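Input structure tokens:
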């Protein structure tokens, strides 16, 4: 395993050895992932099996979708509550919180709005959470591609579940059969350009510190940056988790943490200012790129009037089937390691978290 220059804490694992290797190679990769999830709750996977051109095409469709007029995007509106998590959410509709369930707590968190917009889709055959699509003529080909990309991501989730089943010695069949894809969610995210001062002064947020609800999350991100992951050993200290070329970032969600009885961490993460970078503010006789003498070189975070560029990311969330009871798996608890959580159904837990995310 190696470490990215973008972060000092998140390992990089070659998942191709699991997809194509012999049993001993599969076990080695499973151990590497186990170590990563025990230490930080995140891992970068290279050679994950989703073709690079497919990932790039998904970002292209995301750009096309969010570039549509608001009234067009609102033809596929997210319902007002979080119970049906599909469709388009305009900036300010969703506010991510971390275990806040009282109405006054939720209202206070909304005083600093999340400045982002999103589009959610899921399994084509999902009767519990049917998809909400634009009329085909508004963005021809969008639905067909997104359904195809969903299938690619779902297949990768099941292979990751196979690896985690080896790590936890889950008996025959492993964790994969508990995930029918009905609660899987493909999300397109757009963080519009914003004045750096708005983020720095906490007038707005891109997305607040939070953990994910489900079992696993895949994250594809552009090169703008801004994702930060909390150090589990030093709460409140965040490290950058920028993109690694041709890798997908994978993290543990709350339900998998409960299933593993806290062996694996559902680590808190957030999106804020991108990494500091120098840029030129034009001066006398200087073009807009600051290429001639007279410009002032500044740090992005310190520049007055500097606009943080648009950021796009594509997370894919996996959750166990609705009625699956999540409680400590055999081998994760015993006399010296008691069960830390009461049993909960996957659907019950997700609905509790979603109710705090969308106003009723």
């Amino acid at each position: 395993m190696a470490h990215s220059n973008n972060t000092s804490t998140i390992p990089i694992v070659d998942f191709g050895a699991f997809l194509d290797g012999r049993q001993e190679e599969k076990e080695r990769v499973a151990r590497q992932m186990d170590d990563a999830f025990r230490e930080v709750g995140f891992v970068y996977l290279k050679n994950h099996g989703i073709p690079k051109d497919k990932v790039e095409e998904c970002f292209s469709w995301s750009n096309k979708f969010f570039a549509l007029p608001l009234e067009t995007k609102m033809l596929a509106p997210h319902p007002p509550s979080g119970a049906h998590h599909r469709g388009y959410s305009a900036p300010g509709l969703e506010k991510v919180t971390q275990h806040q369930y009282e109405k006054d707590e939720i209202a206070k968190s909304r005083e600093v709005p999340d400045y982002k917009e999103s589009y959610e889709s899921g399994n084509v055959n999902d009767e519990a959470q049917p998809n909400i699509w634009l009329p085909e003529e508004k963005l021809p080909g969008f639905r067909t591609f997104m359904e195809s990309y969903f299938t690619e991501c779902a297949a990768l989730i099941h292979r990751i579940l196979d690896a985690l089943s080896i790590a936890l010695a889950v008996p025959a069949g492993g964790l994969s059969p508990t995930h029918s894809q009905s609660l899987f969610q493909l999300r397109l995210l757009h963080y519009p350009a914003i004045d750096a001062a708005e983020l720095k002064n906490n007038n707005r947020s891109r997305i607040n510190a939070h953990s994910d609800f489900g079992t696993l999350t895949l994250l594809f991100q552009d090169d703008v940056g801004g994702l930060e992951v909390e150090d589990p050993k030093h709460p409140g200290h965040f490290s950058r988790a920028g993109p690694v070329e041709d890798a997908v970032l994978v993290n543990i969600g709350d339900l998998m943490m409960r299933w593993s009885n806290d062996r694996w961490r559902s680590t808190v993460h957030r999106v804020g200012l991108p990494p500091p970078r120098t840029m030129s503010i034009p001066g006398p006789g200087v073009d807009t790129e600051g290429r001639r003498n007279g410009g002032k070189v500044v740090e992005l975070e310190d520049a007055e009037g500097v606009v943080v560029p648009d950021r796009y990311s594509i997370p894919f969330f996996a959750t166990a089937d609705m009625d699956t009871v999540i409680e400590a798996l055999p081998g994760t608890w015993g006399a010296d390691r008691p069960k830390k959580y009461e049993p909960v159904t996957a659907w019950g837990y997700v609905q509790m978290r979603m109710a705090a995310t969308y106003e009723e």
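The chain has two domains: 2-274+309-355, 279-306. The radius of gyration is 21 Å.
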